[in-house]
């Protein structure tokens, strides 16, 4: 449900950007103070890469003509903890907006709230409460389904509220709300099932919490997840649905009319035009075979950019922590 800048007024977009920036800064500060932060850095990077790749793979929603993709916020929160999850999700969204024009720069804060904040702040506590200490497969699935559905619906509600506050789209709110909330129910269900499966997969490799330790005789978690991310982003994305995503579908079905871009929107769009290496994850040329080549290239570049950004953020956090220790 990446929002585009066109749906947001500058005042609403900047307000959410500022709020999201404060939340990420607070999360980074808390993360830098956690004693196991260094051990989590490799997993932060590869899970960020996996979430980037997973968001490239839209799946069709039967009977609607729309599609959806995983958000990954709940998965990041369960395996990394809420602070690290917000830092990683912010990195993923920044890479998507800058290098692939996926989601607007003005909409960065809204997108972080809709896909990252609600799973970390509300979905994770619910998941932990439902899962208990040692959940079996059925209980774990239920413990992931409920918060994933909650996060998807809150994200959809957030899009509706942010759009309504901006006043840039003339649409019947009740119809838009019904379409948005309805289409994000199956998206949330798929999110919950995949999250449960990934948590079980990580558990079998020896990861049982936000600071996983390798288990004897088992594959290391970080390289295994990285390999899965590379396959998902460079090959799995070939088979992504071409249907409009849930937000685009709901806007079209509700008869929304978005106003002409203003000066701020045009300026931000120009910035994205200069920074986007592969807009919409595709090569400019339409030669035979270029679609899959562009997708694989975009997946590879996006994975590297996400790994680099998360690694750079982690290095800054370590440096800040070392500076505070020296000051004492």
Which structural traits does this protein have?
328 residues; mainly alpha; two-stranded antiparallel sheet; CbiM/NikMN; cell membrane; PDGLE_dom; Cobalamin biosynthesis protein CbiM; transmembrane
Please give a structural write-up.
70% of the residues lie in helices and 3% in strands. The protein is mainly α. Helix 2 runs antiparallel to helix 11, helix 3 packs across helix 5 and helix 4 runs antiparallel to helix 5. A hairpin with a 4-residue loop joins strand 1 and strand 2. 48% of the residues are buried. The protein has a single domain, classed as Arp2/3 complex 21 kDa subunit ARPC3 (Orthogonal Bundle), CATH 1.10.1760.
Radius of gyration: 19 Å
Number of helices, counting only DSSP H or I runs of 4 residues or more: 11
Q: Biggest sheet, in brief?
A: 2 strands, antiparallel
State the strand order across the main sheet. Answer: 1-2
Order of helices and strands: HHEEHHHHEHHHEHH
Main location: membrane
Organism: Anaeromyxobacter paludicola
Subcellular location: Cell membrane
Pfam family, one: PDGLE
Concise summary:
This protein is mainly alpha-helical. It contains 11 helices and 4 strands.
